[in-house]
Hints:
Helices cover about 50% and strands about 10% of the residues. Helix 22 (about 600-630) runs antiparallel to helix 23 (about 640-665) and helix 23 runs antiparallel to helix 24. Pfam families: NPC1_MLD, NPC1_N, Sterol-sensing.
Amino acid sequence: GECGESEKVPGKKYNCNYTGPSLPLDPKGYDLLTVHGGASRLFLSLFFVLTCPACFFNLMNLFCELTCSPHQSRFMNATKFNATKINSTNVLEVEYYIGKNFSNAMYNACMDVQAPSSNVKALALLCGKDAKDCNATNWIQYMFNINNGQTPFSIIPIFSDVPVSGHTPMNNKTYACTEGLEDGSGPCSCQDCAKACGPKPVPPPLPPPWTILGIDAMTLIMWISYAAFLFIFIGAVLGAWFACINTRFENALRVLFSSWGSFCVRRPTLVILGSLILVAASSGGLFFMRITTDPVELWSSPSSQARQEKDYFDSHFGPFFRTAQLIITTPLTDTFIYSPYFGGSDVPFGAILDKDILHQVLDLQLSIEGLIATYEGQSVTLKDICLAPLAPFNNNCTILSVLNYFQNSHAVLDHVVGDDFYVYADYHSHFLYCVSAPASLNDTTMLHDPCLGTYGGPIFPWLALGGYDETNYNNATALVITFPLNNYLNDSVRLGKALAWEQEFIKFMKNFNNPNLTVAFSAERSIEDEIDRESNSDVGTIVISYAIMFIYISLALGHINSCRRVMVDSKISLGIAGILIVLSSVSSSLGLFSYFGVPLTLIVIEVIPFLVLAVGVDNIFIIVQTYQRDERMPQEELHQQIGRILGDVAPSMFLSSFSETVAFFLGALSNMPAVRTFSLFAGLAVFIDFLLQISCFVSLLGLDAQRQEGNRLDIFCCAKLPDGQEEKKDSFLFQFFRKIFAPFLLKEWVRPIIVSILDCYLSRIGHLFIYIYIYIYFVLEIGLDQKLSMPDDSYVLEYFKNLSMYLHTGAPVYFVVEDGHNYSSPEGQNAVCGGVGCNNDSLVQQVYGASLISDYTTVAFTPSSWLDDYFDWVKPQSSCCRYLNASGDFCNASVVNPSCVHCRPMTPSGKQRPEGDDFMRFLPMFLSDNPNVKCGKGGHAAYATAVDLRPKGAGVGATYFMTYHTILKESPDYIEALKMARILADNITQTMGHKVFAYSIFYVFYEQYLTIARDTAVNLGASLAAIFLVSAVLLGFELWSAALVSLTIAMILVNMLGVMWLWSISLNAISLVNLVMCCGISVEFCSHIVRAFSVSVKPSRAERAEEALAHMGSSVFSGITLTKFGGILILALSKSQIFQVFYFRMFLAIVLLGAAHGLVFLPVLLSYIGHPTANILTFSEDFGPPLPQPLHGSASSHYTRPEIPL
Length: 1206
């Protein structure tokens, strides 16, 4: 019977000493024995092994023999006593003789049992140390140790299989975990019994190297491609080319644009005013402009799988919680040794675990807890927004910190038990105990302090410590403190409070200074804040970049013939007007899409002006410089001259602009919002820019020409110089291209050298088109290093660095079972659960199997299973599930009330799983029950949000089962984790016959990388196809010339991919946008040269190529290369790493590669395999008599212009 109160464990009672014969148990004591007696009341162990019947039976056997065996005298011996006031004797200590066979068999049956709610093995919670360090002996010793807070008196186990001191050890029958019990219970599940599993899953072997005839396939393909293109090239040079196709379309375009140009010069007021009205109307949409900075909106399409799964998760379980996190290290390097008083090996401790350092860290933590922010005049504290899983019974915030082992108290941290000579226990021993048993309510040291955090849950060491090796937590070099905060889906007020507190947290941490602590920190809002700050800080750099380009354009457009006429011949006002036209096209595009509610992104704002400036300025230079080099014919008026010039150059402009527009609009087919939005805005902006240039700019050019002919000063047009005759001279750049560069490049001995280099690149093109997917996957790094998104001086960079250096666990991953699964039926339960009787391929079992090969699957732990814990919680063997007999209201296990009865009877049927109505009757009680000393299985803390109950108890809706990923450091790790989780979820879906998906907070950002190689190939392929088709039509159906344009652009793209690899530029949405833009700008470099070659009437290909390069090369070089070069160099000074990597490096490569291919490779290529004849018909054949040619001796008579009379 029970006697006095235990002195060691308050609330527990000693047993009375009795040495007589065994007595039958009063029936009233059955319930006390089975539920409240020496089993579950004394030992919390039983609650954690209910999922394995064999383990539970053996463990219960151990306790029952101890408590009420009629043969106790054979294997028990009371050794210490204490008299009570009521003439009875308390038993203070007993010896329990246990057979080694029994203890080992019991341990073997229990060693693999999982604790579903904590993702660890049950022995990790029951043995007082990590499960891998637990064995049969120290496990039983721990359970019987009076210092564990559950045993009222000391029980000393003595292990032997032979009689000792006249006692016969208890060696009852045991069951292996692979055996069923006599009561019909089946063997333990694979999750709880490794021996019940089949062979351990092994990762599939790595694919063997791809070889052809024993040679590396990629090498062989490269050489075959090289040889094939070399053969084709030689054949092309030696062979005859097909005849010219009808060129009427080309001449029709000339007539159309000539007439339109003449009209614009004759009616400048009408054209300019009309253009202004249209631009103003289009730009009016900017009042409705929305800029998207939400990373989810930027990188994930609403129709994407990850986005839909995120929305589903948020709507059923609430959004993933927010976090504020510290990673704390110390510059101190001293380590110290802890020597346990009661024996054992010395334990080294890192400097970060020095008690003085811990006190300083606790001061910091408490200061953060005390922060007060202000939101709309209201004070906001951490308690207002923090995650408190046991509220309203326990309102303490969840703080994942090693200081929570000490209940966040300086006094507990300083707690010491000892005398004047020795320290028996202090924070060292408590720390070592708690990292092994974080859910313990009482350590086994003489401190008797709990390890459980103040919020009512465990602090797992892998979440609170960093920089340790294996499980040697004492070697930690960093402390990790995490403050989980509530997140809100559609509550702007509460979300605003969370944001306000985070802002106060960031402000406090920026000002925090302690010479002994180095703190890296971040809040949920940090990344978005830093991106905004980065954008604002780079405004100056961007402005300077564009200012340099603007100044160059304004000055370079003018063709100064003499110092006397500087202000007359300059075209600063025309250059400014051209720039304003470019900016107007951008604002019109933004405005038109804003009318339709299409949001802008930072990529659109940062990249499109650069793109349109490249395209637009090139066209401006071509128009103006062609006019400057042209000589007006006799009897030709100004409007006719400019109309004729526009007829000459506008088809080329139309070719490039329309090709780019179509290519960009095809890029809008991408699933990535950033790429799609950029493509839409860019395509429209380029086309509007073309329309304004052939209308408004032509009218302005006519007005400027009239000003220049009237000797009026630029800008100050009211002032006028005296009349004088000045000889027109060609610009230095034009003369350089005409007299030096073009003749040299196309010399007979230079061309073969260029061709040999060119052919090497041509072999790459075959490689690109056939194997681009493989090339991207195996050569380019895929992803976006999150450190690149931060400014150079951002505090978040240090946090990212420490995150990858110190953290030892990955992000949580949830396997979500969508609404509609039947949990009330045995079939539905078996398809999900992981305990006895569950399917070997159930959800829990499959995730468990994946965790066994975590290096391959990236799944680190067994999932927490609310279903398995619910089955244990509702069993009549536990004291968890009770209700008031009169009202049916739930009775918590800690409630002492005789009216509380068990939910299910202690009968064979009552021991079975609940089904049908019974299942739903008790489930809400389980989800509202807080875990406590008498019932550790309450589901409120672990599963309150894991189960979405339908209204009015109509059933279970969506649920999730949580585990963790392994450590993920770089983008490829995150991409692989997403890929493997989806494969696992798909397998579970197939076996269950019901939709299951994997969800983690980072999936929505990394999903794009699963298909980005394919998206890149599709986008670039579609752009090239569009350029080919448009070029073919607008070049008068010259398929070969269109193919050469597309081929050269493809070469530029291949080289861009090579530059990305050499310059460590990863493939992601930003770089894909730049590659799409590269297609557009490359058209400018190529199409004008090809069209000039196409209309040239020189007799040979080499002469036509030379004339095309001389005539158009200077305009392309000055309009794109020089314009962009100065502005790009300024971007190198940006504080933004994204600007430095993805804009400076890629823009520079685009311009240099475009210039090299368009102005070097393409002319040489045309000189060999260009179309053999000019694509031109004279007006005498089709449209009437030709106009007179320019006068001899004119400034333009030194080169032969094609006879294109109008």
